[in-house]
Amino acid sequence: MKPFPTFAELERRGDSGLPVSWGVWGTDDQLGMLNNITPEAARDAAALVKRGVRFNLDLPVHLPYGVIKPEAHVFRKAPTQTLYQREIGTLMVRDDKVDDLYLQGSTQWDGLTHIGDGELNRFYNGVKSEQITQREGTRNGIEHLANFGIATRGVLVDLVRHFAATGRDWDLAAQQKVSAQDVQACLAAQKVTLRQGDVLLVRMGWVRALLDAPDLEARDALVRPWSCSGLSGNLEMWEFLWNARIGALAADTPAVECMPFPEGQPTLHLAIARLGITLGKCSIWRHWPRTARRMGATRCSSCPARSICAAGWARPPMRWQSNNRRSNSGRSGRRRTGRQALHGGAGPGVENRKPQAG
């Protein structure tokens, strides 16, 4: 068997001289670095379970856009939930639907067609734009992540706690960059050695700041500038992640890396196209780090939810919280995109429909 290439051994393409992993897992591969998650990695992760404590790491789908001012993004906005109710004999039936659900709008996994390389005019593994059709035979869709299944060891990288312990200032709004050396120092302080197939779960505090913001103005000020601290996306980070053979990288920030992205320089988003890295965004590390510290654990068995959209470009959670009162007024087609409640849903409306024959 041909040995797995190191970062230095990867092919370089384009005038930039940046590496590509295209062909490492075959010319037809549509998973990228998820291939590092082997059956052995999944089996070893299952052995980590001792107490069976479970944590949901997804925001409700209406966050953040449902709790900030409109037009914070060029086209994304808060989803709208509509509830339908009817009676069939003695059965009380409730259905619902969600409109304006942007798959990159909340907690998500980025698919391998979320970002392409403009220099090479290609997506991961050399895929051309015309091959991305969202029809049968489309390439690099998010459904491949779902069908593969991410079941492996999750490793918490608690940068917030690490920087506090080492006396380093950490300001989410200051566009501070976390280097590969910083991540390695945090892992060393946590006494964690990475294994092939690990999913790195990086805590930087952005989602916590969103949830703890006192009012609409504070939440909007956090989201609207599209500027925040995060991981560096430079080649040293690429090399560290590649040579560690991680399965995926997730964080509790909107972009994982520092925003705005430096023009003309490597970024983790460019690594989606070049290396086939899967990025997870806006995850909640709110309760798990505290419980993990109490239990003395920074590793877990990680099994994210499945995709909901075939041939899509991202995977959101399907978690919807609602503390709004449901109306039984019988009015048809009522729906709201409420922005009042941070932990509530996007204001369900109710539509009463009589059962149809047949």
Topology record:
Layout: E1 11-13, E2 18-20, H1 39-46, E3 80-88, E4 91-99, E5 108-110, H2 143-148, E6 152-158, H3 159-166, E7 177-178, H4 180-189, E8 199-203, H5 206-212, H6 216-223, E9 230-231, H7 235-244, E10 248-251, H8 268-275, E11 279-281, H9 288-295, E12 299-302, E13 314-315, E14 349-352
Parallel strand pairs: 3-14, 6-8, 7-9, 8-10, 10-11
Antiparallel strand pairs: 1-2, 3-4, 5-11, 5-13, 6-12
Explain what this protein looks like in three dimensions.
20% of the residues lie in helices and 17% in strands. It is of the alpha/beta class and 358 residues long. Strand 3 (80-88) and strand 4 (91-99) form a beta hairpin. The chain has 2 domains: 7-61 and 102-315, Glucose Oxidase, domain 1 (3-Layer(bba) Sandwich), CATH 3.50.30; 65-100 and 321-352, no CATH class. The strands form 4 sheets. A 7-stranded mixed sheet has the order 12-6-8-10-11-5-13. A 3-stranded mixed sheet has the order 4-3-14, with no helix packed on it. The longest helix has 10 residues, at 180-189. The chain has helices at 39-46, 143-148, 159-166, 180-189, 206-212, 216-223, 235-244, 268-275, 288-295, and strands at residues 11-13, 18-20, 80-88, 91-99, 108-110, 152-158, 177-178, 199-203, 230-231, 248-251, 279-281, 299-302, 314-315, 349-352. It is built from 9 helices and 14 strands.
